[in-house]
Amino acid sequence: MNQLMHVSKLVFRHDQNKRWLKKPEVFQLGPIDLTVNKGETIAIIGENRAGKSLLAKMLVGAVAADEGEISLSSVRYNAAKRRSTRSYNASNDIRMIFQHSTEAMNPGITVGMILDEPLRLNTRMTEKERRARIEETLIKVGLLRDHVYFYRHMLSDGQQQRVALARALVLQPKILVADEPFAALDPSIRSQTVNQILTLQRELGLSFIFITHNLGVVRHIADKVIVMKNGRIVESGKTETIFRWPQHSMTKKLILAYQSLVPQQKIT
Amino acid sequence: MPMLDIKNLTLEIETAGTRVKALDKVNLTINSGEIRALVGESGSGKSLIVSAISGALPQKFHLTADRMSWKGKSLLSMPTEERRQLMRRDIAVVFQNPGSALDPSATLGEQLEESIPDELVEGKWFWQRRQSRRKSAISTVHKVGIKHHRHYLSAYPHQIPTDISQKFMLAMALISQPKLLIADDPTRGMETTTKTQVLKLLTRLNQTKSLSILFISHDLLAISSMCHSMTVLYCGQTVESGRMKMLRKRPLHPYTKALLDSAPSFQNDLPPKSLLPTLDGTIPSLKHVPIGCRLGPRCPRAQRDCVITPAVRRIHDHTYSCHFPLHMEKL
Ligand SMILES: Nc1ncnc2c1ncn2[C@@H]1O[C@H](COP(=O)(O)OP(=O)(O)OP(=O)(O)O)[C@@H](O)[C@H]1O
Ligand code: SF4
Ligand SMILES: [Mg+2]
Q1: HSE toward the beta carbon, residue B206, CA cutoff 13 A
Q2: Where would I find the ABC transporter domain in this sequence (chain B) (predicted)?
């Protein structure tokens, strides 16, 4: 398999002044080592406040790290030095869908404008090229060309989720990072989105890193699972192995909690 | 006799001069000691049912129902004060947005102590009563799994993280020792271990205190592990309702089937990374609801007759509304 991204010794330390809650211990994330291969799906699971969202943001460059190195598409970056996302990820190989992405969608502008913005800011495409790319992306995520004229209130939750997906895909990244992409979706939209991502992976060879509490979906689509606790990766491995033979107590706890909910005997 | 009994509840909303039926002849009953799940697509009207029961409906909503009663007493004709008392003592509601239901200007401790009904406070003198309030506030937040009570009870609503405020809302609801708990998506976004804690707590209260629960959620795994019965809502209509086991085994309505299929954990023989079975499209907006069966345009079994609204049919305690139900041969 070809390696797309490699993260080594990524560290983030919490700035104490920013916190209202002045607990004595300092929050530290990392050191994190991580490899992402082409077409691979990686799930990050763990407790609330384990630092999962923060890790995701560091991977896409939305938050700067304090130490460490990221190599992306065989270009190396010093994760600590960069101040903005400009230099890192300049080729837009990694993009993110943020948590609560549907609520974050600007109600005052059309879907077309939402998708145009990253293109205008990050590429030198002409208006015509951008337009073509937008339409192509909309169709890829299962929306219609006409949706460029739609505003947020005219779309259902599931469609808004697709717009968020389209927005992340419009720059044609190689890796997609998503923070809780399924939590706010109702069951039938959730399976539609899961199917969408599976199809995209087959067609484009996209790598997909996602954070979730939904272990059912993890088990179904992830190749690798990463378990986090208190800012550290405590266990990682193949999905099947993690579910069958969890080693760390945190992993055991999560898997057991999940299995206690899963119906044991098969229904006919 | 059911504790809460709702028959043909219809709720019309006036928007821009037109009236839309957000709830159309919804039926829902909750028996004493029962945990009932209410599921359905987002926007199908689950939260509206909660508001209708709690009586917190805005002016422009028009509510009609053949029956809407609590222990045989009609909620609709009940004097306002009596209904308020009922909502304060017997029925507790956890609304969907945890933060918004809290008063931003008071600490959590103050708000929690305030919601303890006077009857439950022990002691004659005010300091004894104050202590009693304090004690039951602390024990209730412990019960719902909030550990640092000293810290959180003196915090203001905006200072606490979402999962704590979700648990806190549960504490607010449980502190009055209600007979019925209505919980609207109480475990949304919670990680698995916290969620199982909450589910265990609810199950335990149901068994020891015979608390009835209306559990609203998108989490089918949680629902099937805990609930005794389930009501399925689609686009403002109840499409199927019955015992959990029956529904899991033989869903009669195509939407229920699609809903159950959407959870990968329910299918043992599903190959990894295979596409999940799902219905096309999305729930229609209220302004454009299809005539007849509202699932029509998305339904794989739809036929011509489906433009006529299917009537409610009943087999024992299992009700459904569909012209061409599944699994009929097996019955
Ligand atoms: N104040 C309102 N004015 C107009 N329409 C409303 C109002 N409140 C709710 N609705 C509509 O009623 C329908 C049902 O909404 P409701 O909030 O009950 O859905 P829900 O089933 O709780 O969804 P979710 O699973 O996302 O919580 C939606 O189509 C919504 O747009
Ligand atoms: S009545 Fe017709 S459209 Fe409606 S669920 Fe049944 S088969 Fe499908
Ligand atoms: Mg709701």
Answers
A1: 21
A2: 4-260
